[in-house]
Amino acid sequence: MPESSVKNLSIYQKLLNNRPSPGTAVPDVFHSNLSRSVYSCPNCFSTSALSDPCNYINVLDIPKYGRIPVPQDADNSLPSRWLSDLRYTISTPLPHQYPNVSKKILSTERVRVVMEDVAGIEGLSITAIRKRATIIVNQMKAKISKIICKTIAYILFKVFRRIMSHLLVCPAQMEAVKRADKSGIPLVYLPLHRSHLDYLLITWTVWHWGIQLPHIASGDNLNLSGLGWVLRGAGAFFIRRRIGDEPAAAVDMLYRTILNSYMCEILRQKMPLEFFLEGTRSRFGKTLLPKNGLISSIVEAVQQVPVSFTYEQLAEDMFFEELMGKQKTRESVWGSVKGMWRSIGIGRCGAVRMHFGAPVLLSEYLKKLRSVYVNGSEQFSLNSKDDGCSYRELLPWHQGNPDSSLIRAIGSHVVYDAQLQASVSICSVVSTLLLCKYECPGRLQSLRADLRWFCDYLVYRGFDVLGWVNGEVTSEQLTLQRVLPILESSLLMDDNSFEVRACHVEILRLAYYKNAILPALSLTAVVALAFLSHRSAGQISDHLVIETSLLLCDLLQFEMIFCKPCENLKEKIAKEVDDLNTDCVNQFRVEVVLENNNSKVVSGEAENKLRFFANIIKPFLYSLYLMTDYLLSLQKPFEGRGIF
Predict the structure, then answer these.
(1) DSSP conformation letters of 186-218
(2) Which residues form the Phospholipid/glycerol acyltransferase domain (predicted)?
(3) Residue 579 burial (C-beta neighbours within 10 Å; 0-12, 13-18, 19+)
(4) What is the reported pLDDT for 602?
(5) What is the pTM of this model?
(6) Architecture of domain 518-633 in CATH?
(7) In this structure, how many other beta carbons lie within 10 angstroms of the beta carbon of residue 176?
(8) What is the arrangement of strands in the sheet containing 491-493, beginning at the earlier edge strand?
(9) Please, are residues 509 and 556 in contact by the beta-carbon 8 Å criterion?
(10) Which residues contact 315 (CB under 8 A, 6 or more apart)?
(11) What is the DSSP letter of 290?
């Protein structure tokens, strides 16, 4: 083993050992129940995972041990904690250069041609169009400053320790990203978006490993007075959320071309990019469908790194006012400061995990998915309509690209992989139990038993649960002690019993946490609902369950991704049905009737468990039904925005 690897292993071992002792009543948030550390699609790549240990370390503790790589002698005494953050920030370098590429944009051939075309269309001089283009570039560009980055890095040590108890990353994942960064092929981080903290978490974390800092594509709603220049210094460049108020105005050739050229120039300089593929923070706690961009002409020249986050609790509010129908308030510096101030000092986020997927060439995705299409394989249909008005569709994207459907497939694939690698928080597990099983008051003893069964089931299905140690006798007691204070406002409790508080805001809070479980159980929930929808018929055939499940997936295709584009959805559903007949028979107790039609009768206990899973997706179908019923009741045709 190389000497550097031994050094890194020693510091990681010290960090892994810096955890509560067995006698301390705190869940082991460092533990992972998975044997793999870095995941990538086994269908598209020959190496689907790294088998390195995948336990986590707390990045907030790194200054106590010195910089990375570790000191020459791993047995030396640890450095003093006195001013450890300051000393670590000063001693940890930013070794890479970040040239300002904005000066080259207006001189590119493509931008010059478009400026001439726009001047001809609008009847203006080239000078006037150039001034407009200069304004666009100045409003957009990032300007990474090492002084600003170092200052922010030191401040974030203090802020993160006040907001969260742990910031957990897997060393094996970071080493994989570091190797990819050294390959000379630029990285594109594609994180799922949960919080405003996401913008800085990736940049701050890769700094510890000496990886290049990314340029971050941000909405111009964050380009606030006094805050915008700080974010620019940390790598953010700002993109308009809308181009004009009318759909026709969205086809702004000049802006699109400048944005495309700016991002391509960043990658040409071999600097990383960071782009939130969902485009906005999720209002519902579930993963959003991808808004495709950044994957077209540059698709074969970058390595993509899916990134996901697991928050025990979000730092900011959960869009309750928007979900209750109130108008969205425009973000401001004062509002951001107030939101951050409310979070500081209370450890609101609890433990936070970051998950970095295996860096892979996007061209490999394209090659595999093209072979799927060429071979005529039956794959998951991608019928979503592009939104031409959204900035999230502007990034290097060429209308009429013959590979546009493949590019959309890549977007879906990346999002699916990102959500698949994320851990499930205990808040999500308990919230799912509360909403999907305990419609009536329950007892804490029953909740503990259900918590153990549910966590073990998720681990059995290949998903990690933050804070859960599979097989440990006291896990459910420790995790309940940790999660109940977070959900305290949503529950009415006495010594031995509880019930969910009948309040819209609290139901929304629990639903937000519950929806994070969808990547793990969406297809299970669909199949369970298909079973239950035919229970009155007595015996149920596999064929009928599969066809009903396909119908449900089609209805919900704009809410969640049920499989990867390289997979066959019907085959996945058939396997899920088969799991009920084989591996999961002991859990569901489905009584199988061995007849020619391969039918089955659902027993009473099985029906209760199937009903629990089905309740996970029922709210989406209820919402779809209510909206459809409302639209059908309108006295005049639907005319778009403002009809409600």
Answers:
(1) PEEEEE----TTHHHHHHHHHHHTTPPPPEEEE
(2) 187-312
(3) middle
(4) 54
(5) 0.85
(6) Orthogonal Bundle (1.10)
(7) 21
(8) 442-443, 497-500, 491-493
(9) no
(10) 163, 195, 196, 197, 339, 340, 343, 348, 349
(11) P
Could you tell me where in the chain the CATH 1.10.10 domains are found? Answer: 518-633
Give residue-wise pLDDT tens across range 226-279: 778 888 999 999 988 665 443 333 347 888 889 889 988 999 999 999 988 887
Structure tokens belonging to residue 486: 């977070």
CB 54 within 8 A of CB 35: yes
Q: Any idea how long the chain is?
A: 644
The model's confidence at residue 36, banded by pLDDT at 50, 70 and 90, is: low
Nearest CA-CA partner of 265 in 406, 467, 106: 106
Cis peptide before 22 (omega within 30 of 0): no
What are the helix and strand counts (H, E) for the chain? 25, 17
Per-residue pLDDT, averaged over 416-427, amounts to 91
- Does the structure show a pLDDT above 80 at 285? yes
Question: Each residue of 365-415: pLDDT tens digit?
Answer: 777 777 766 565 444 444 444 443 333 333 333 344 445 677 778 888 889
Superfamily of domain 3-96+141-421: Glycerol-3-phosphate (1)-acyltransferase (3.40.1130.10)
* Amino acid identity for residue 341 in this structure: W
Written as one letter, the residue type at 179 is: R
Given the structure tokens 């990019």, which residue do they identify?
273
